[in-house]
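Below is our example:

___
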Amino acid sequence: MTTLVRIGPTDHGRPMTLEEFNAAEGAEGHQYELIDGKVYVSPEANFQSGILERWINLKLQLYALAHPEVINLVWTKTRVFVPNRPGATVPEPDAAAYHNFPLDMDFREVRWQDFSPILVAEVVPEDDPDKDLKRNVELYFAVPSIKEYWVVDGRGDPNLPRMTAHVRHGKRWRPKQMEPNDVYSTRLLPGFELIVNPRS
């Protein structure tokens, strides 16, 4: 039987099993992930990051409603289980889109480790940009189902964010850089167009 433990910012880097992490209670004001069997603590999103998360999720949700045959579930703060790491590795993207997610199954039986998204997105935090610009570039590529990884960077000005779409190409990502107000389209989501502007 696992003992409930409370974790906080000082536990960054603390070794934990997946079972212990799942049973832990995190102090408010921070986000907690398990990366290579160690607790990874980062600040919760402020308004500037949160509004960009909301924008990306809304655009994907609207597309999913219109094209459920392409993606039928969009989720915030899902868990992505990365294989072949030194310890349990479970990043939690700001947005994730799933193809053919079995929405008719008993919800009590849904476990994130049984499903992987085809697309994930992250909004770069001011206090820990390397998490999304470096760490997650490697981690998400290690998940075969993920065909694209979007990185939205509003650190300079959240009104005019930039975006990088990492598109799987053989054994590497092919990054596509976009400036504010550029339009992004992708074969992964036929008919989808994203104006890189949170007010669009």
Summary: The two ends are 50 Å apart (CA to CA).
